[in-house]
Amino acid sequence: MSFGNNRLLIWGLLASIALNLLFIGGITSNWLNRPNVQVMPANLGWIVRDLDEETRQRLRPQLEQYGDRMRPMRGQMFRAQREVNRLMTMDPLDREAILAAFDRLRQANIAYQEITHEQTIGVFQQLNAEQRQRALRFINERRNPTDQRPSRPREGPPTL
Predict the structure, then answer these.
(1) Whole-angstrom Cα distance, residue 49 to residue 87?
(2) Which segments in the chain show pLDDT lower than 70?
């Protein structure tokens, strides 16, 4: 390799390092300067979707607290689902292990639903009749199982 090629290689490496530092700096700056925005908990975000901003702000602390409580439960459900999926792809299938994994998934789901239902009631108790109707519009917009019209696409990953 000649001196000219080495020099070209060195300049190329320096340019690559400079670009990488620029991108890393930009990403870091964006991350450090972003506003501290809390996302609504997945299990209750639908309630406030059509409510006015004032009501959303009033409910935000309670919803964030609810979300903190639900996050580990959602993680447990997702881990149980991944375990079911893993066992279903094994060869040969272990029927007993799959049944036990489904039982763990079912128990995690039941616990999650129970807490979600309690939290939903807690939020709805703070809404007036009109706000409750507006919140329930989300459910009413969803397709009725006996209705033959196409449904809106589901949000989120498909489940087993």
Answers:
(1) 37
(2) 1-4, 26, 28-43, 142-160
Q: Report the distance separating Cα 138 and Cα 124, nearest Å.
A: 14
Our CA angle for 35, 39, 45, nearest 5°, is 150
Side chain identity, residue 17? I
Sign of the torsion formed by the C-alpha atoms of 70, 120, 154 and 60 = negative
pLDDT digits (tens, 9 = 90+) for 103-124: 999 999 999 999 999 999 999 9
Distance, CA of 105 to CA of 86 (rounded, Å)? 13
Whose tokens are 């340019």? That residue is 15
pLDDT score recorded for residue 157: 45
Cα four-point dihedral sign 7, 8, 10, 15: positive
* Residue 146 confidence (pLDDT): 60
Nearest 10 degrees: Cα torsion 29, 42, 143, 136 = -110
